[in-house]
Each structure stands twice: as C-alpha cells, then as structure tokens.
Adhesion G protein-coupled receptor E3
Amino acid sequence: VPGLCFLLSLSGAITQKPKATCPPCPPNASCVNGTYCTCDPGYVSESGQKFFTFPLEICTDINECKPPFSIYCGPNGECQNVEGSFYCRCVPGYKLLSGDVEFKSSSENTCQNVTPSNKGKKELQQIVDQFEMLLTNKTLWEMGKKQEVSSTATSILQNMESNILATALKAPGQKVQKVQNSTMAIETRVVTDNCSEEKKTFHLHTQMNSMDIHCNDIVQGNIQGPSAVAFVSYSSLGNIINASFFEEMDEKDRIYLNSQVVSAAVGPKRNVSLSNFVTLSFQHVKMNPRNKKSFCVYWKSTEQGSHWSRDGCFMIHMNKSHTICNSSHLSSFAVLMAFTYQEDDSVLTTITYVGLSLSLLCLLLAALTFLLCKPIQNTSTSLHLQLSICLFLAHLLFLTAIDQTESKVLCAIIAGALHYLYLASFTWMLLEGLHLFLTARNLTVVNYSNMNRLMKWLMFPVGYGIPAVIVAVSVASRPHLYGTPDRCWLHLDQGFIWGFLGPVCAIFCVNLVFFLSVLWILKRKLSSLNSEVSTIQNTRMLTLKATAQLFILGCTWCLGIFQVGPAAQVMAYFFTIINSLQGFFIFLVYCLLSQQVQKQYHKWFREIMKLKSESETHTLSSKVSPDSKPTEVGDIFPGQVKEKF
Ligand SMILES: *[C@@H]1O[C@H](CO)[C@@H](O)[C@H](O)[C@H]1NC(C)=O
Ligand SMILES: *[C@@H]1O[C@H](CO)[C@@H](O)[C@H](O)[C@H]1NC(C)=O
Ligand SMILES: *[C@@H]1O[C@H](CO)[C@@H](O)[C@H](O)[C@H]1NC(C)=O
Ligand SMILES: *[C@@H]1O[C@H](CO)[C@@H](O)[C@H](O)[C@H]1NC(C)=O
Ligand SMILES: *[C@@H]1O[C@H](CO)[C@@H](O)[C@H](O)[C@H]1NC(C)=O
Ligand SMILES: *[C@@H]1O[C@H](CO)[C@@H](O)[C@H](O)[C@H]1NC(C)=O
Ligand SMILES: *[C@@H]1O[C@H](CO)[C@@H](O)[C@H](O)[C@H]1NC(C)=O
Ligand SMILES: *[C@@H]1O[C@H](CO)[C@@H](O)[C@H](O)[C@H]1NC(C)=O
Ligand SMILES: *[C@@H]1O[C@H](CO)[C@@H](O)[C@H](O)[C@H]1NC(C)=O
C-alpha cells in the first residue's frame, strides 16, 4: 500500500507540477523553497521534523487546548479545538457582551452571566404584574379617605423601589435591564466600578421620561460590591395620586398633573440626599399647555399622609412638550401645571401692564413733586409722599415679581414684601385720615403746633411699624401660606388672606368715620364763625380728596374679595382697571389739580425755558428777543380746572 500511494502521489505531483525540484507534500503541508515540505500552521508532523521530503509523512492537528499549549480563554471562557486551529467561547450560561460566540484570547473575554439575568428579567416582570394587580384592586383605592390613599400609594412606591433594586443587584452581571408594560416601565442599571471617571453620569430612559444621575450618587461610597440605580415610570398612577394631593392646593388654583409619575432610587445604600442634582426630563401628557408655568414636585411622605411638595425640586427648562427639573434628593416625581383665568385672559394682562406702568410713572412724578416742591411741603404732603413711595414700590414689585413662582422661598419673600408694601400704603392712608381729623378738631384748640409735632414724631413708627407687626405675626403663624403656585401672593385658604383684607377693611371703616366727622365738624364751624374760612375750605377740600382716594384704594381691594362666583370676570376687570389707576389718581388730585403745585410747575417750566433760550442765544448768538415769555405754555396744564369737587 505505501508503494502504491507513493506511485499515486508521485504521478499526481508530476501531472500537477512539472517543477521537478519540489517533492510531493502530504495533506496539510506545503512546499518551501521548492525543496522541502513543511506542515501548515496548526499542524505538526508525526516524526517531529519541521522540514521533510518524505512524501508519506503525516501532518496532524495540534490540540491547542491541551497541554503543552493549554490556551487560557479567561474567566467563564473555554478553549475549543478545531482542525488546524482553535477558538475561545463562553461556558454554557454565559455570553459575550457583543453577542458573538467566538473570541481569540483572554484579552477579548467579555463573558456575561445570562441565566440569572433572564431570571432577573422574569422577576422584574413579576414585579410589574404585581403592581398592575395592586393598581386595579378597587378595594385598595376606594376607601375614600385621602390620607389612607396617599399612605397606600407611598408604601406601594417604596415597595416597588426596594424590590426593583434588589432584583437588579441580584444580577450584577446584567448591567442594564428594561421591562415595560402598559402601566409601568422600568430601567435599572448596575454600576460595578467605583466612578473612577470624573463627572460620569448615567442616563436612564423609560417611555416618555428620562433621568441623568451622577455616578457618585449611585455608588455613594459603596465600593465593596455593585450598586444599582432604578428609574420607573408609572403611566396611570397619576390618576390616583393626582394634583389634589398638592400641599399648596387651594380651591382657586386649577392644577393638574401633566406628566407621568416617575420614581428614582439607588441601592444598596438608600441615602436619598445627593451631592449633585439629579436631572429629570418629563414629556408632557397634555402638549402645548396654555400657561407658561410648571412645577416640579416630589412625593413627600409624612406622618399625616403624603402629598406632592416642591421642596428641593425646581424647574430648569420648559417648552411645549417637555419640562426638565433638577432635584437635590431622590423620590417619586411629577410635573404639575397651574393656570388661572387671569393668565388665560390676555386683555386683562395687557390692562394690568399698561395701567400699572402708567401708575408707576405718575407715582414717580408725584413723589418727585412732593419732594422737590418746597412751597407745598407740610405734614400733609409728607404723608402723600410716603403713600406714593409705598404704592410705587408695591406696584413695581407686583409688576416685576408677582409670577416668580419657580423658587418657593423667593416667592414667599415676594409675597411677604407685597403684603407689607400694600399694608403700608393703607396705613399711610389711615395717617392721612387721622391728620385731617386732628387738623379739623384743632382749628379751635390752641396747641395745634403741639399736635402737629406729635404727628410728625409718630408718623414713621406708625406708618412703617404697624404693617411690619402684622406681617411679622402672619409670618410667624403660617409662613407656608405665603406664595401660591401661580402667583406670589397670600394663600386664599384657611382665611389667611384676611391678614391683608382685615386691616384694609378696618382702615377703610376708620377712615370713613374720620372723614365724616371732619365734614361734620367743619360744617358746624362754618355756620358758627366766618373767620378762618380759607383754612376750613382748604381742609374740606383735602378731606374730599382723601375720601375719593380712600374709595379708589379701599374699594379696589374690596372688589378683590368678590372675585369669585358668577361675576368674577367682571370684578376682575374692575379690580384691575381701578388698581392700575391709583397712581394716576394721586398724581392728578394732589399735583395736577393743586394750584400751588401748578404754580410751582409754571415756575420750573419758565426756568427751563429761560435756560434753553439762554443757551440758544449763547450758541447761536442770534437776535432772538431775550424776553420771550413762556406764559402761554402754561395752558398745557389743566390749570384752569378749578379746585372744585
Ligand atoms: C487537512 O487535511 C485533511 C485531509 O486531507 C483535510 O480534510 C483538511 O481540510 C486539511 N486542513 C486544512 C486546514 O487544509
Ligand atoms: C529557504 O530559502 C531562504 C532564502 O532563500 C533561506 O533563508 C531559508 O533558510 C531556506 N529554507 C530552508 C528550509 O532551506
Ligand atoms: C385587594 O386588596 C385587598 C387589601 O389589600 C386584598 O385583601 C385583596 O385580596 C386584593 N384583591 C385582589 C383581587 O387582589
Ligand atoms: C404585561 O407584560 C406581560 C408579560 O410581558 C404580559 O403578559 C401582559 O399582558 C402585559 N400586560 C399588559 C396590560 O400589557
Ligand atoms: C477606584 O478604582 C481605582 C482603579 O480601579 C483605584 O485606584 C481607586 O483607589 C479606587 N477608589 C476607591 C475609593 O476605592
Ligand atoms: C383626583 O382624584 C380624585 C379621586 O380619584 C378625584 O375625585 C378628583 O377630582 C381628582 N382631582 C384632580 C384635580 O384631578
Ligand atoms: C447622605 O448623602 C449626603 C450627601 O451626599 C450626605 O451629606 C449625608 O451625610 C448622607 N447621609 C447618610 C446617612 O449617609
Ligand atoms: C441641574 O443639574 C445638573 C446636574 O447635576 C447640573 O449640571 C446643572 O447645573 C443643574 N442646573 C441648575 C440650573 O441648577
Ligand atoms: C423641548 O425640550 C426637549 C428637551 O430639551 C427637546 O428634546 C425638545 O425637542 C423640545 N421641544 C420643542 C418643541 O422645542
């Protein structure tokens, strides 16, 4: 047989290759230098010779997986020999991260445990199903009592979090797990390294929402084993723990939940306070919300039940479809939206802005007049001045900051400042009433100047002190009722608004009594004596003006009370228009219609004209007559309007 083979191969070699020099090589061998045969890579000759010419030499496969080679494929990897070669593969139950089957060496080993992760996925699915059962269990939710509903929701949410985290930590090999169903979607992620990369964040995404969390906040110093983060979106839980669980809810706020409820949790260290903000992105349920405001809230659990709260959560960006929030702690989160009819009504908004701007201008002019117009300065004008300043500041704050509701603390401070400034305006009005009353009463009393001095002394402590006391008491009793979700003003529930309306109504009534008695005193005086008529008339005029002012300012806020019920819309218009006109009214009555002030205006005007004409004559050196009288110019003031009321 060997002889026959030799002859056959010889003949084959001769027929294939006419090159006589190369010997016929056996299978799995090739010719080198045209003189020798050598086994192919992965084969070895049975004789052990590397180069040979004997054509019956046999090249056999080398088993690289057995000694002496014993290729190492890394953990959970095994070597697999094939003809002329070998490869590595993962042991059963493990898989390459890439999904491939073969790899070449231990350096390419990424074998992952797949069996437990399938188990993990199944467990997660079980959690989802269990949740679905809880959600549809009517007996759980139809207890009626809000407090119980909120406690049930809290315990379910907390159970969910711990179960999901436990499941994720059981299969640390599976870095990312996702499960989704109609009621909830879960994504978990396991972190095994110790966040050596600075500023590394993880992005988790479920259905419509996503979360970015800093690696350090997941690991929380736990370097012994893996840590996990879970992000869960609940699509229908918001129907149960809806906006009526908002802690700042009151009847006039129309608030609704405009996102899914999401939960974020880390483990095994369950510290919820974070060193960096966690950023949450919510897709709105209702697109294109009409109002421009949304609140990021979290589910705060307390002894007395749970509710949505804004502490530590704030909105950083919002557009038609998304709201993005930052939070300093982990919990369950959602986005609330609020809108009021005022915001719906662009006409009302325009009136407010135009009217208040006009008011601000008028108040500024009035304040400047009271301050600079020397001839009219007396106790009465200094009272007007303080009133104008308070109203100016109040309106300015109202215009610029009434809707700065993003930060709860800032909003509460704004509400407190507004409360103080408006109250101070009213206190100064009360002082005006008191001043008029004393003036009238003291027309006959000798120590008038004494009274006047007392008034001057008491003015500032009373005018700025009383509102401060009222605000301080309000702050001390219920600080959380400063600032509502849609505007920085006092809350309407628990009668808190009476901290403002109460003093206003009281001042209104007291002033009314003052004015009526002043008029009565003056009437009696007028009939009894005919001297001092001018003083009496003057005082009467002031009283009438002050009464008008009282109605303009006082009634406005009384109208504010009626902004509920069927006539709310009309009342809102009245309120806004009259409120906006307060500044204009003060300027009109005390400056434009006052003869003394008019005279002063004329004087200033003349001076300005003189300066102007002087400078003109200087610069142009023309023949403009220097005594051009600007008397006619005075007609632009309604000076001819007689001080008649
Ligand atoms: C080695 O030889 C055998 C038998 O002729 C053949 O089946 C096999 O394909 C050869 N191997 C290689 C790598 O060429
Ligand atoms: C084949 O030829 C090369 C160069 O011509 C030489 O370096 C080598 O040693 C030769 N191999 C053998 C087995 O003779
Ligand atoms: C619903 O919840 C109640 C109270 O936990 C429980 O007793 C009942 O078995 C649940 N029903 C279903 C259908 O799961
Ligand atoms: C939830 O998922 C499970 C398993 O994937 C499926 O059998 C069930 O029908 C799903 N439920 C809903 C409401 O989609
Ligand atoms: C984190 O890992 C790196 C590299 O593995 C190591 O040098 C460092 O000491 C570790 N840090 C901590 C806090 O364990
Ligand atoms: C909240 O849910 C309760 C009970 O399901 C419902 O009566 C109420 O109208 C809801 N409130 C809001 C603001 O959606
Ligand atoms: C929780 O984390 C915060 C911030 O990282 C840290 O200040 C606080 O001490 C931690 N609390 C506990 C109980 O570990
Ligand atoms: C929100 O959080 C992210 C991540 O911590 C941070 O980079 C960003 O500055 C925060 N934005 C604001 C407005 O605080
Ligand atoms: C709204 O903001 C989100 C997140 O920043 C962005 O993905 C989306 O494209 C924005 N949509 C519009 C209509 O601007």
Q: What stands out?
A: Residues 408-441 form the longest helix (34 residues). The mean pLDDT is 80.
